[in-house]
């Protein structure tokens, strides 16, 4: 393995060196798993009995059912040498124990160099709470294919195998995931931006994503020249005002329909800039009407400063009773190729080794 100045290597020699270092990295990952197992064996409770009174060292079972326990404090010592916290070190030792005791076929593939260690550790994490019998079913299904498919496909196969091996545990896990659902909002940064994290039912998220796309496409139809992701961000504020969102979608749909006879360019490239296009105005009525009236434009149209300045499009709240149509009706011809590239969504079937 070359250890000198890489600038002295030819292209062929450099690639050869990359392969050698990658193989060495995998060997070191395997050796660390073996070290974790030996450390667990050295610190089995039989070597120093655990005590139950407060403050005393307890026994932990980081590998779950079917794996031997370890003494509580020894994980911190192991983690100190790896630069890990006590909790992370406990999990690492637990993965090694699961591989050896509950996934022997998978572990044998790792030791022989036929399976990437980190992928095997992911499987171990999923099987930690399974019984030995249930884990054996998973082990039999996945051991031979770990490095032959993408990480996402492997994860899906592991989940399916777990449902087959232990339906009750799978059902309990699904209920636990359902209890974790929620909408979480982060702190504002110095630039007036907040983050939001949504964990909800798959169907609800798909419908919400479709509505965001419909509004983003409507903004583009009506002349907004921002990128797709910026328009999707604006759509968050618009969708919070259902009458305004409905009016915006209706106007964009009408504009698209009116331009379908134009053969020079597709409807999506015709921003609504001609005077004949009726762009509704977003208007606030009630207690805040007088305040917002101070921001009237020269044309005498009340505007919402937060929304109009950002989107460049206005729509009326008053009298807008249309409900948004389904996404395929609102979007018309759908996003352009530029929009698809701009969105840059991960389809979850990547082959990353990271």
SS-based structural class? mainly alpha
Strand order of the largest sheet: 1-2
Low-confidence stretches: 265-279, 285-312, 314-334, 344-354
Anisotropy-based shape: extended
Question: How would you describe this structure to a colleague?
Answer:
The strands form 2 sheets. Strands 1-2 form a two-stranded antiparallel ribbon. Strands 3-4 form a two-stranded antiparallel ribbon. The chain contains 15 helices and 4 strands. 27% of the residues are buried. It is mainly alpha-helical and 354 residues long. The radius of gyration is 29 Å and the shape is extended.
Write a brief structural summary.
With 354 residues, the chain is mainly alpha-helical.
List keywords for this structure.
single chain, disordered C terminus, extended, 4 strands, 354 residues, 15 helices
Give the helices and strands, then pairings.
Elements: H1 11-42, E1 59-60, E2 70-71, H2 74-82, H3 86-101, H4 104-111, H5 117-127, H6 132-142, H7 151-165, H8 167-179, E3 182-185, E4 196-199, H9 202-221, H10 228-239, H11 242-258, H12 289-293, H13 305-311, H14 327-331, H15 337-343
Antiparallel strand pairs: 1-2, 3-4
Helix pairs in contact: 1-3, 2-3, 3-5, 5-7, 6-7, 7-8, 9-10, 9-11
